[in-house]
């Protein structure tokens, strides 16, 4: 990632260095196709493989910042979504005022992160032109809405934030360790 001289990125933007060749090969092999240019590893599985990468779709404009690269986790989340998981998570968040407030904060954090990352990686473009309607994870235009559990789980694994992703991970049998990492 580009670093401006004399400026330090906020902690929530810090990610591991650009993908090494072995990580890039793993991501390409795990997903069978790479529809985006992964820029960095944001989270690794216990075996050390990239589990979440940072990148833009087609190296162009996207409202998704974090991408899950673990085929097993992708399949688990897809099954959860097909069984009504998005609605269950949405209802859980709405039923608990403290979770709803945490969700609103995480949506705003994601929006700020996306704008900052966009400015840093695509400085030639105006983020407001492309991202103005974005209010949170998955490109939602309504910050109270859960759209894509894949995006929420990726955000949670990458940043340790986000109650929607944390709820989904918990329902999938993952637990958060003392170091903040999620594992099964």
Which SSEs are present, and which pair or pack?
Layout: H1 21-31, E1 36-44, E2 50-57, E3 66-68, H2 71-82, H3 85-95, H4 97-121, H5 127-131, H6 149-159, H7 163-171, E4 175-176, E5 182-183
Antiparallel strand pairs: 1-2, 2-3, 4-5
Helix pairs in contact: 3-4, 3-7, 6-7
Structure description:
There is one protein chain. This protein is α+β, with helices and mostly antiparallel strands. The protein has one domain. Helices cover 46% and strands 13% of the residues. It has 7 helices and 5 strands. The strands form 2 sheets. It has a 3-stranded antiparallel sheet. Strands 4-5 form a two-stranded antiparallel sheet. A hairpin with a 5-residue loop joins strand 4 and strand 5. Helix 3 (85-95) crosses helix 4 (97-121), helix 3 (85-95) packs across helix 7 and helix 6 (149-159) packs across helix 7 (163-171). The chain is globular, with a radius of gyration of 16 Å. The model is unreliable at 1-13 (pLDDT under 50).
Task: Describe the structure concisely.
The protein has seven helices and five strands. The strands form two sheets. The chain has a three-stranded antiparallel sheet with strand order 1-2-3. The chain has a two-stranded antiparallel ribbon with strand order 4-5.
